[in-house]
Amino acid sequence: MSKKGKEPEWVEMPSVSKNNDIGIDPGENYHDLGKKYPHAPVPRRMDDIIVHRAVLEDISGVSKLMDWVSDGDIVIVEMSDIMEKETELHLSVNKIQEFIERDMNGQVVRLGQRRLLLLPPNFDSSRIN
């Protein structure tokens, strides 16, 4: 707050596109930063980890998931859309498992009925008793 006790002032940021359809309103409780800044230039250090969340709609999305895990990122995959396509589901899961578990020595962990957690080799899951 300013010295005069007024409300905070909004600062114009040249990096924010003028064509941004989603505005930031004062008092807004939630900001979906992925929608507001989809290509934000976030510097990445050597030990930084990114957790991606994705919806796998068909087998064509598997390569992007494998790219993320290859980069050392964690991925949470929602599979509701592909669950109805049984053959494509099995092909996708087999391709993911073969790459992550066999080729990379990472882990694929089932989260409930419709999600997978993809862990690169530098992470390990453990069972809590």
Q: Which CATH class of the domain at 51-119 is shown?
A: Alpha Beta
Q: Summarize the helix and strand pattern as letters.
A: HEHEHEE
Query: Terminal Cα separation, in Å?
Result: 49 Å
CATH homologous superfamily heading of the domain at 51-119: SepF-like protein
Number of strands: 4
> What's the arrangement of strands in the largest beta sheet?
1-2-4-3
Give the radius of gyration: 20 Å
Count of DSSP-assigned helices:
3
Major beta sheet summary: 4 strands, mixed
Please give the CATH architecture of the domain at 51-119: 2-Layer Sandwich
Mean pLDDT: 80
Write down the CATH topology of the domain at 51-119: Translation Initiation Factor IF3
Percentage of residues in strands: 15-25%
Report the structural category: alpha+beta
Low-confidence region ranges: none
CA-based shape = globular
Assign a percent range to the helix content.
Answer: 10-25%
What are the defining features of this structure?
four-stranded mixed sheet; single chain; 3 helices; Translation Initiation Factor IF3; 24% helix; alpha+beta; 129 residues
Could you explain how this protein is built, in words?
The structure is a single chain. This protein has a four-stranded mixed sheet with strand order 1-2-4-3. It has a domain at 51-119: Translation Initiation Factor IF3 (2-Layer Sandwich), CATH 3.30.110. The chain starts with 32 loop residues before the first helix and ends in a 10-residue tail after the last strand. Strand 3 and strand 4 form a beta hairpin. The chain has helices at residues 33-36, 62-70, 86-103, and strands at residues 51-55, 74-78, 107-111, 115-119. The radius of gyration is 20 Å and the shape is globular. It is of the alpha+beta class.
